[in-house]
Amino acid sequence: MHQLPFTALLNKLLAGPVTALLTAMGVHVTHPNAPIANYVAMQIFVVLFALLLFIAVRARLSVDNPGFLQHMFEGIHGFVSGQSSEIIGHGHATFDSYLTALGIFILFSNLLGLFPTFEAPTAFYYVPLGCALVTWFYYHFHGIRTNGFGYVKHFLGPIWALSPLLFVIEFFSHLARLMSLSIRLFANIFAGDMVTLAFFSLVPIGLPLLFIGLHIGVSFIQTYIFVLLAMVYLGEATAHEH
């Protein structure tokens, strides 16, 4: 199994405990000496990198003399908060922290593949699917928390005679959101990585810079779309009209 340098380091330090944990959970470990896959290691790297940035911002918070990182993260949070205010409406502040953290994780993951010896974890389907699953359960939880049984009723429609049919349609339409969120993100980042690598191998100077620029643009756009759809779903779930 090909291991990236950071993956090899994690396996060297944590192979024993991770293998023991997976075995205790009933998971068959194919490579006991290297149970941590590249996409898992890349997610860990993104989280650690983001935590270090957050700590650096927190340590240097200043009202009178804010630094570059503080301006950057305030800008990100302000942008997300402004968008969620328009889409979700009243009570949007409850979700701003989750939406901001989700966007930062996805964006850093998308861009990580541009650096040598790293891969974009979102180019592996499990990672976008994981983000989609967390978001799916998150908006359903808040829909029930906000509207109680009224949230479930909107799956049934206004005509009780058609309720069983409408419930099935609504149920599968919500499941389809998992595919929509995950496949869109995965396909774009995977394709971007493959195209960039292909042109680097063919023309190592000049032309690949154009595709790197395109990949960066796609990374930002796909992050925005994912977070925007999460806002839309949260807005629908928590609307009191339900």
Helix count equals 8
What is the makeup of the main sheet? none
Structural class, from helix and strand content?
mainly alpha
Number of strands: 0
Distance from N terminus to C terminus (CA atoms, Å) equals: 50 Å
The number of distinct structural domains comes to 2
Percent helix, as a range, is over 70%
Arithmetic mean pLDDT: 88
What overall geometry do the principal axes of the alpha carbons give? Answer: globular
The ordered string of helix (H) and strand (E) elements is: HHHHHHHH
Radius of gyration: 21 Å
Question: Beta-sheet strand percentage?
Answer: under 5%
Low-confidence stretches: none
Summarize, please.
The chain is an all-alpha fold. The protein contains eight helices and no strands.
